[in-house]
């Protein structure tokens, strides 16, 4: 089976991890700080707080922005459930904004329409909006940021797919148009730490809060303590935090992986170019990019014409032919948990229509030419068999 995504672990990665295993630090040691510094340097952000997962990073980002049971958080239905769940962990209300039919990202036009309508009707406006950079392409963050200024909400970029991507010639993660940006280091992402994530920001106060909530709410910073004490052993718990810390073992792997990100991105772009060329004459919709975006190509998603083809049948035939395709994503608002909160099918039709037609094809740096040709041939066969 050719999977849709797969980690690439080299001898360099193994050596880095083994070296750390033999060192004096396995948890909170020098590799964590080194990884944080290298991430800041790469994206040109001021501060970073690495975590044990991107979900953890999203959660502490909400906590840092004071999301609570009185808050309202808006995001996109076309994402993994963690993007919405992070607000629910804080007991906040959640709502969604439908997607752009071409980029599959949160649509800034629909966002403005919804904000304007809520303001006109006197409804609660969002305290935080979380745009998701689906498949590795940035949302139109400049437009969304302008709305945040006009309507007074904070912004968390869920850039779990977008390590290495660029928007307006700057790396995603620079936080030029947001308060906090989140990356994921899950095994199928651009770089991996096994599990892991990071919250990046340019705001020192937010950074201190991120660090606080990441580590039990405990601080040794005298400037944050209620009764400052100069003893080196002294610490205070000043809030209710969590243990979301990344280990030195994970950080060592991340440092090694980050050093190869450039060549990984080049390979992904080559694979995408082959797909674009070889699939252009098939009765499917290929992914499209905004002019100001350079995608990191975490995913390569196509859409099947659901009038003349049965997407589910095409999917099954691909799996039967040994191609490990997937679907990204089942819209969050259609999940049973969120339907219990009042959401229904039909609430966000563009996201629902996209989800009914999409298939994610295999895309990872060490996908060979031969394997990619197998994927393309299998897709052609599956389309023939999936005609209605």
Rg from Cα:
22 Å
Would you tell me the structural class of the helices and strands? alpha/beta
- Our count of helices gives 13
> Would you report the number of β strands?
17
H-E string: EHHEHEHEHEHEEEEEHEEHHEEEHEHHEH
The dominant shape is: globular
CATH fold call of the largest domain: Aspartate Aminotransferase, domain 2
Number of domains: 2
Distance between the termini: 26 Å
CATH superfamily of the largest domain: Type I PLP-dependent aspartate aminotransferase-like (Major domain)
Strand order of the largest sheet: 2-10-9-6-5-3-4
User: How large is the share of residues in beta strands?
Assistant: 5-15%
The CATH class of the largest domain turns out to be: Alpha Beta
Mean pLDDT: 97
Overall helicity: 25-40%
Low-confidence stretches: none
Major sheet summary line = 7 strands, mixed
Write out key terms for the chains shown.
alpha/beta; Aspartate Aminotransferase, domain 2; Aspartate Aminotransferase, domain 1; 7-stranded mixed sheet; 3-stranded antiparallel sheet; 17 strands; globular
